[in-house]
Specification:
Blueprint: E1 31-41, H1 51-60, E2 66-68, E3 74-78, H2 85-105, E4 108-111, H3 130-139, E5 150-156, H4 160-170, H5 174-181, E6 186-187, E7 190-191, H6 197-202, E8 208-209, H7 217-229, E9 240-241, E10 243-246, E11 251-258, H8 263-286, H9 295-311, E12 316-318, E13 325-327, H10 328-346, H11 349-356, H12 364-375, H13 378-395
Helix pairs in contact: 4-8, 5-9, 8-10, 8-11, 10-11
Length: 400
Amino acid sequence: MADNVAPLQADTTAAPTEENLVFHGSSEPTLGVELELQILDRETGDLAPGAVRILKQCEQEKIEGVAAELMQSMLEVKTGVCKNVAEVRDQLAPTLRKVRITASSLGYELALGGTHPFHRSGASAVFPAERYERIMERLAWLTYQRVVFGLHVHVGVPDGDLALAATSLLVKYLPHLLALSANSPYWQGVDTGLASGRTALYGLLPHSGTPPHFGKWKDFRTYCTVMRDSKAISSFKDIYWDIRPRPDFGTIEFRICDMPSSLRDTFAIVALTRCLVIHALRLITERPQMLRGDRKRHWIAGENKWLATRYGLDALYIRTPAGKRRPLKRDLAELFERLTAIAKETGDFPFLAPILSLDQFVCGSEQLRQLFRKTGNWKSLTDDMIRRFAEELETVTYEG
């Protein structure tokens, strides 16, 4: 996360060699955040292939932290390495304002969402870069089922063994993060019945979903070597797990989340994610046996992820390998209580405010459904997405 990608280049991570399988750990739980934005046609509200024009203009105006994504209707805006959530906000807010003004000057609008409500994905255009052309050759029709938008959060950890042990502990909390961020109920003008259609679509890809269980860093290295030598992957970017170690950045990367409906919710989820990693690392320090992970909890993680994909915050979460269930909201509320001390200690607690009162919290998917039930008009959804993003950028405060 330390380096921003040049505007007109795709993010090309090197093949997993022995050298870059060395985990370049972080002594602090630093943050790096990536947002995937929708580029919309101002008149129709449909996705528009504006990335090439917008990125060229960003390059001319020296706007950093903006990069291409798979489709020309997508932009990625990312931070560098941040010490806390306040710094994430302070890096993202001014960049997003500049990018939105740039897009607007070219006739486009920007919005936040996990999927577009009515776009026909077959009409999308792949960004002209070698990596994305390789993806299109490999995935064929599936390429056009990747017109989806996510939030990726990196948290620094000290070494590879701790990264894998923490990942094993944190897999059980992926449904919690997904339910809070769920913001993709519609796909090509159809209500999927899911809280997160994006998550279901991502499950079509090879090397996606819940990661395999690894006991030690050397096991992950062996996995990557086998996958590289068999030509199943050519870079870390070909591993689409919901959570994965990034040895080149020295982080755990969370990829489970939809792009939330607001920056306020985004910062809250980033704060929660960081607190979870800190909590996991402390548990491992206190109980070294946890370095081995818990395979049974890993086995039920896929079902819990599905429950959150389908029902969001209304899911009944499988709490133990013995099958005991409880409402996901109740589990989240208890999780917030356990993490409050860490959030206050790190200074991130104020950012958690939007999600702490779960009885009042409404995720993006439900917001979209409520609006469509009221208007019965697809474009009203994109108009609202555009308006809310623009208004929030005008009101969010930041240092600098």
